[in-house]
């Protein structure tokens, strides 16, 4: 038995009627009755409140472009709760009747904070630069190694079929700007063969770029 007895959830959800759980339920009921009495006589502000203003505020936040995870981050609540409140229904599909005063306050004071748009761009000069590197004899694998990117990323970028975050793109741009004016290592016969093969392959694939660079 690893279940924790003496907790309200055990009594309510799991239906345990052991002494500890019954005591927990009794204590809860007493506290609740006391709280409701105090609220009734205006001695304390209500603990549980109508969720309508919170539901409306979440609707406005989302309309402004905030997602549930972002609202969760700024309110300290779970994204799941924000999701439920956005629909006004709880996990069992029933309308949410009451929410905690604290939850209400957290939501009502949540500012509109827009995340920066994911800075994915097509850097027009990047494919040409990468092709120039290949035409110089650098293999895509070598470019990948030097820029810290995967072979697949470099391949897609060279063919101009992928977008990249601006700052990452700038990094590749800087590294490749150096590579295009440097010869790849040609100390061993293997390296020399590789360079020749890469050059020929690049010239075949990108004759226009090769022409422009005068290496056709
Ligand atoms: Zn129990």
Give structural attributes:
216 residues, two-stranded antiparallel ribbon, 4 strands, binds zinc ion
What does the secondary structure layout of this molecule look like, with pairings?
Elements: H1 8-12, H2 19-40, E1 48-49, H3 52-63, H4 68-75, H5 79-87, E2 99-100, H6 101-108, E3 120-121, H7 125-135, H8 140-147, H9 151-158, E4 164-165, H10 166-179, H11 189-205, H12 207-213
Helix pairs in contact: 3-5, 3-6, 4-5, 7-10, 8-9
Describe, in plain words, how this protein is organized in 3D.
Helix 3 packs across helix 5 and helix 4 (68-75) packs across helix 5 (79-87). The longest helix is centred in the N-terminal third of the chain and has 22 residues, at 19-40. This protein has 216 residues and is mostly helical. The model has no long low-confidence stretch (mean pLDDT 87). It has twelve helices and four strands, in the order ααβαααβαβαααβααα. A two-stranded antiparallel ribbon has the order 1-2. Strands 3-4 form a two-stranded antiparallel ribbon. The N and C termini lie far apart (78 Å). Bound molecules: zinc ion.
